[in-house]
Each structure stands twice: as structure tokens, then as C-alpha cells.
Write a structure and sequence with these properties.
single chain; 186 residues; alpha+beta; Peroxidase, domain 1; 2 domains; 4-stranded mixed beta sheet; globular
Length: 186
């Protein structure tokens, strides 16, 4: 049963992202909405209490909408994005804003003919490093890529690249785990 719940959440995130994508496309504001969603997702990811509150059934939809409106004001979100996150709150989907942002980014990448790549690094990458990763991956794949850089301190060093369903793990954590397994076998 848990699997079906996860599937419906993913499907809901894709449906919401598709609806927002269509509205943003009509308004000619795909890039600003994408940037807005990334900012909202990063804000939620960066505050565990906020993430729990938005996902919690203990808070009323109106309260969540109020919090998201304040966040939208502080982040300077576009009117379309503000209204959209308000709708997600009223429909009790505010806890899925991170998934919706990811689904929107995937759809935008497909629209542009790009491959979406998630690069996970141990420490925050500079914009130059992110562009370098994007260039290397783009040259390697032979096509244009859209890169999202995420920080995961548990990697210790190195990076992971998620290209569609394929994971390329060049992290120090992975290498240490392989060494540990090798030593156990000796």
C-alpha cells in the first residue's frame, strides 16, 4: 500500500507541474517560474521545521497558504508562482512543492530538448564549477544538459551525477564503502 501512496504523490507532482508549465508557457514566463520554484524548494529544503509543517496534517491549509504567501513575498516570487503555491497549500499539496519543482524542471528540460542532470556534491559548488560540470557532462553526452547542483555532505568528497535513471557515483563515500567491502572479503 505504501508504494501506491508514493506513486500517487509522484503523479500529483507531475500533474501540478504540468498545469503550471502550461500556464507559464502561455504567459511566456517559463524561466522566471522555474527560478521561483527552485528558490521555494531550496527554502523548504533548508528549513526542516518548515518542511515538516508544510507536510503536516496538523496545520490548516489556510495557515500553510499564509506561510507560503510570506515566503513568496520575501523571495520576490512572480505573481503566477505565488498564486500557484497558494493553490498547492489550499489543495493540501504544499508538502510536495519540492517534487513539483523537480517535475517542472524535468518538463522544462524536455521542452528545450535538454537532458536534466542532478549533480550532488559534498560542499557548495561555485557558479564556475557548476558551469564546468555542465560543460563536461554536455560534451560527454553529446547534447545540451540542464544541471541542478545539490549539496550532500555525506558524500565526503567527489560527486554523484544522476542522469535520468542512471547514477554515476564518483564520491569519496562510495570509494570508502568499496574499500571497506574489499577489506571484509580479505
Amino acid at each position: 500500500m505504501a508504494g501506491s501512496s508514493t506513486t500517487s504523490i509522484d503523479e500529483a507532482a507531475h500533474r501540478y507541474a504540468a498545469a503550471l508549465f502550461d500556464l507559464a508557457l502561455q504567459a511566456g514566463s517559463l524561466d522566471p517560474v522555474d527560478a521561483d520554484l527552485k528558490a521555494v524548494a531550496a527554502t523548504i529544503r533548508g528549513n526542516a521545521d518548515l518542511a515538516r509543517a508544510l507536510s503536516s496534517p496538523l496545520y490548516k491549509a489556510e495557515e500553510k497558504a499564509g506561510v507560503l504567501a510570506a515566503i513568496g513575498e520575501k523571495l520576490g516570487l512572480s505573481d503566477l508562482t505565488r498564486r500557484f503555491i497558494g493553490v498547492t497549500a489550499m489543495n493540501r499539496r504544499s508538502g510536495e512543492l519540492g517534487s513539483i519543482a523537480a517535475a517542472f524542471a524535468e518538463r522544462l528540460a524536455r521542452h528545450r530538448g535538454e537532458v536534466r542532470v542532478v549533480a550532488r556534491v559534498a560542499v557548495k559548488a561555485t557558479p564556475e564549477q557548476a558551469r564546468e560540470i555542465e560543460g563536461v557532462v554536455s560534451a560527454s553526452l553529446g547534447r545540451s544538459v540542464s544541471i541542478d547542483v545539490e549539496v550532500d555532505p555525506e558524500l565526503i568528497g567527489g560527486l554523484q551525477l544522476q542522469i535520468g535513471s542512471r547514477l554515476i557515483d564518483a564520491s569519496l563515500r562510495n570509494k570508502l564503502n568499496a574499500l571497506t567491502n574489499l577489506m571484509k572479503g580479505a
